[in-house]
Amino acid sequence: MSTYAQVPKKVLIVPLDWGLGHATRDIPLIHELLNAGCEIVIAAEGKHAALLAAEFPRITMLPLPGYHIRYSQKGFFFGLKIIRQIPKIWRAVRFEQAWLRKTVAELGIHAVISDNRFGLYHPDIPCVFISHQLLIKTPFGGVTERLLQKINYRFIQRYTACWVPDFAGEPNLSGVLAHPPQLPAHTTYLGCLSRFEPMPGVEKKYDLLALISGPEPQRSNLEALVLSQLRQMPGIRALIVSGRPDEAARQDVAPGITQVSHLNARDLNEAMLAADMVLCRSGYTTLMDLAKLNKKAILVPTPGQSEQEYLGKYLMQKGYFYSLPQHQFSLKKALEAVKTFPFAAFQHGQDMTAYKTVVRAFVKTL
C-alpha cells in the first residue's frame, strides 16, 4: 500500500501521437504514479501503444485514435500542411471528449493526465495538461503565434493544472516556448522529465549513436541520409536506432555499423552513455534525455517544424548542443565541427527528480 494514498486511485495517461517523445517522457511519471499506489490506464495506439506496453506490460492499454498529423516532404510547406489538417485535429478533439466521458463513467477513472492532447478534460475529476509549448512557434511569426497561444490557453484553462517539463528559471531547455511573459493559471514546472539515469562505468562502444525519430515522412528521410553517409565512412563505430517500436529488427548494415528498430529504456540509456556523440532530432524529450545524461549531441531539426528549429538555434547559442539544418546535413563535416565546438554542460542547478514531488502532491489530492 502506498505511503501517499490509502486506496488505489485510477489514473488515465494519454500521450500525443506526434513522434514518440510524448510517450517516452510520460514513463517517469507513470513510474512515480505506480510508486504512489495508483492504478494506471494508458490510452494510445500504434507505435506509442507498443512502446508503453513494452515498458509496462501489466498496465491496461486502451485503444484511442491519435491526431494522425502528417508532415510535408519539404520543410517550406510544413506550416501550410499543418493548417490544412486543423479540421481533422478538431474532429479528433471532439471525439476524445466524448470518449473520455464514456471511459470515466465505465472504468471509474479518478484523474486524467493528458500529454498535449486538447480534449481530455472532464468537469468532475482532476485533469492535468502537460506541455512545453505554451507559446507555439510557427513559420509565420508574431500574429499567428499570438493567435495560437490564445487558442492554446483557452484549452489549457479547461484543465485543473498545467505541468511544464522544464525548469522555471535560468538555465532552461525550452526558452520562450515554456517561458512566455504570461503563464496559464495553475502552471507548475516539473524540471527535467527523463526516463534515463546516469550510470558509472559504462564502456564506450560507439563513435556515434544516431536516434531516428519523429513523424513520417521526415523520419525516413533522416534515416536514409544517415545510412547513406555512414556507409561512406569506413572505420566508424555507429549504432542507429530507427524509432520503430512496432517492429523488431536488427542488422549489420556495414562493418562496425548496426541498425536496430527499437531499444527499450534501459538498453537505450546504456547506448547513449556508451556513445561519444549522439545524432538526433531536436525533439524536446530527447533534449531532456541528453541534458540529464550530460551528452554531447548533433541536432538536426525536423525541416519546417518551427519548434525544433527554434530549439536547435536556441540551444546552440547557449552552447549546449551543435545544430544544423537537414538540407545542409553532412555527417562528415558535422563530426569535424563538433571537435572544436565549445560544448557547455547543462548546469541545471536543480533536482532532476523534481517531478516526483509534484506527482506525490497530486496523488494526495485524489
**Rg over C-alpha atoms, rounded to the nearest angstrom:** 20 Å
Instruction: Point out poorly predicted stretches.
Output: none
Distance between the terminal alpha carbons, to the nearest Å?
A: 15 Å
> Quick one: overall form?
globular
The tally of beta strands, per DSSP, is 14
Mean pLDDT: 90
* Largest sheet composition: 7 strands, parallel
Order of helices and strands: EHHEHEHHEEHEEEHEEEHEHEHEHH
Helix segment count?
12
Structural class: alpha/beta
Proportion in helices: 25-40%
Strand content: 15-25%
Strand order of the largest sheet: 3-2-1-4-5-6-7
Describe, in plain words, how this protein is organized in 3D.
- Helices cover 36% and strands 17% of the residues.
- By secondary structure, it is α/β, with parallel strands linked by helices.
- The strands form two sheets. Strands 3-2-1-4-5-6-7 form a seven-stranded parallel beta sheet. Strands 10-11-9-8-12-13-14 form a seven-stranded mixed beta sheet, sandwiched between helices.
Short description:
This protein is α/β, with parallel strands linked by helices and 366 residues long.
